Amino acid sequence: MKKALITLVFALCITPFVFGSIITNANQSTMYIRMLSRNASTDIDAVYFNPAGVTMLKNGFHLAVHNQTITQDKTIINAFPYLNNDEYVGETRVPFFPILFAVYKMDKLAISFGFGPNAGGGSADYANGLPSFETGISQIPIALTMMGLPTTQYSADIEFNGTSIFYGFQFNLAYEINEMFSVAAGMRYIYAVNEYEGFIRNIMINPYHPLANPQASMVPASQFFTMIGQPGLAAQTSDMDVNVKQKGSGITPIFGLNVKPSENLNIGIRYEFNTNLELENETTVDDSGMFPDGYKFRNDIPAILSLGAKYSVTPKLRAMFSYHMFFDRSANWEGAEDLVDSNTYDMGFGIEYDITEAFLISAGYLYTSINLSDDYLSEMSYELPSNAFGFGAKYTINQKFTVDAGFLTVSYTEDSKNITYVPFGNFAETYKKTSMAFSIGLGYHF
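^ thats the sequence. predicted structure below, dont judge the formating
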């Protein structure tokens, strides 16, 4: 049971709290939330999605501030019959997910800056722990009964809370070679912070023992095992707390190409190199003995290839297509990358329509393919294929000021596998997830 909490801490280091690949957050603008396809953007969010596309902006200074409010629930259903609970829910609530873009464009040259949570970005709260926290405890009554000490109940206080955020500070330089081609080069500085607090406390059982517990009352497990001369079991059932902070930083080189072969068609290409990211433990409390202060481990952000196209169907109607390939198998996740059967990819399609010169509406769809081995799939680190739907609007108040708003909902394909509990046999564990996001963005042109 103690090992389960330790494993969860490391697993959450490579699991995003919002939307994207196994680790990367793709939701980097309000326009993305309302369209789900921005890789050929020539608006201000091109700073992230299509760095070379910022050369299409008007001369002057452009600034945008966006925020997203995100909810995500992860549900695990475990069929092991001796658990007190069969459903465990991890709640993620992200009231603030800030994003900033700034561009200075002068003729053929554009300098841009972007800030946003490129991975992580929320707090996951497992108020009742997870099945693996509890399965070991649930077997104590069975084991004691087999030893001739009839036991029918157990209880424990189990909780885990993890926060993770990888801040990204991006700097780009873009240049328009001619009317058809623009190029960009840049870098993103990543500053990563993970914080984890968890405990398993007050394990209680009700064994009948003529001397130690003649009334078969609920008693502390560690106290009972001490009384009957089982110090090893007493240690295993004693309280355990973990409080760990992990920090690290890395650099992501970025290159971009924007191609405009005709007035109606624009193509964006972006490549981000693998971010070599090393995190280090800053341990405050570690009753497990498995979080040595100062221990370092790799938690890379994978390389990304993004392709996109925008086509003006009519003067009022525009369509966008986007594709991402995340090179998860080439990252260093301390061996977890070997459990990824194939690299993650997604494909998105979005449209926007001008109702008036000042007001437009948009909608989009995104499919994300994630292919993990059964050895990767677990309550602690599962990711699921998904279908996302977004819609929203943009209002141009005047030539300088715009407002964007969007809503996103994600439907995930549930998965399951059989887990062997010796000597009880195999029991199914099912994994589910739901996500939603609302975003609003303000843009200003000087």
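The domain at 24-124+162-195+247-445 is CATH 2.40.160.60 (Porin).
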